[in-house]
Amino acid sequence: MKIVIGEYGKAVLAAISALLILGLCLVNLHDANGKGGIFEVLTEQAGNGAAKDASRESDEMYQMIQERKEPTIRYRNCFICAGEPLDWASMFEAIDADGDAVEWCVTKINGKPENIASYCFPKSGVYEVEVSAVDSYGIISNRLFNIPVQRASFGREKKG
After folding, report:
1. SS (H, E, C) the chain
2. Burial (CB count within 10 angstroms: exposed 0-12, middle 13-18, buried 19+), residue 133
3. Is residue 141 within 8 Å of 94, Cβ to Cβ?
4. Are 104 and 73 in contact (CB under 8 A)?
5. What's the pTM?
6. CB 124 within 8 A of CB 150
7. Which of 89, 99, 91, 93 has its CA nearest to residue 69?
8. Which of 35, 76, 94, 124 could form a disulfide with 151 if both were Cys (CB 3.0 to 4.6 A apart)?
């Protein structure tokens, strides 16, 4: 029995010694960031791989947004008379690259910012109206329109 324990005991003791030495070597292993131990290094590397994938996805999303077409702004040919209140909502529409309606606003009339909510064209003529639209991705479109405005009684029957 002593012979069996002596032979196998030496093998078990050698295996335990080898594992302890290997463990000490791996625990003292450090990466460039100062992280120590094989488990911390491997955990960090696995996390970096996931971060690289997320970074790649965000780069692809950024590229997709950059290549996205800006919103299209359309003027609906409306009959506009000088001095009459305007229905801005019926004059313009804006759609994004997906065909969905987006918010738009009139930013300038004849190159000057105006209070659009209460604006009336004061006299007949052609007015330059700047319209701006922004889609859900933050892509902005600005467009100038030349809007013809008729005099107040043009094309209307007189009552009386």
Report:
1. CHHHHHHHHHHHHHHHHHHHHHHHHHHCCECCCCCECHHHHHHHHHHHHHHHHHHHHHHHHHHHHHHCCCCEEEECCCCCECCCCCCHHHHEEEECCCCCECCEEEEEECCECCCHHHCCCCCCEEEEEEEEEECCCCCEEEEEEEEEEECCCCCCCCCC
2. buried
3. yes
4. yes
5. 0.56
6. yes
7. 99
8. 124
The 10 Å CB-count burial string (b at 16+, else e) for 19-49 is eeeeeeeeeeeeeeeeeeeeebbeeeeeeee
The token pair that represents 9 in the structure block: 């005991």
Q: How many residues does the chain have?
A: 160
Rg (CA), the chain: 37
Digit-coded pLDDT (tens) for 117-147: 778 888 999 999 999 999 988 889 999 999 9
Structure token digits, residue 4: 């069996």
From CA 16, how far away is CA 19, in angstroms rounded?
5
Residue, of 55 and 90, whose pLDDT is higher:
90
Structure tokens at 55: 């970074």
CA distance 29 to 11: 27
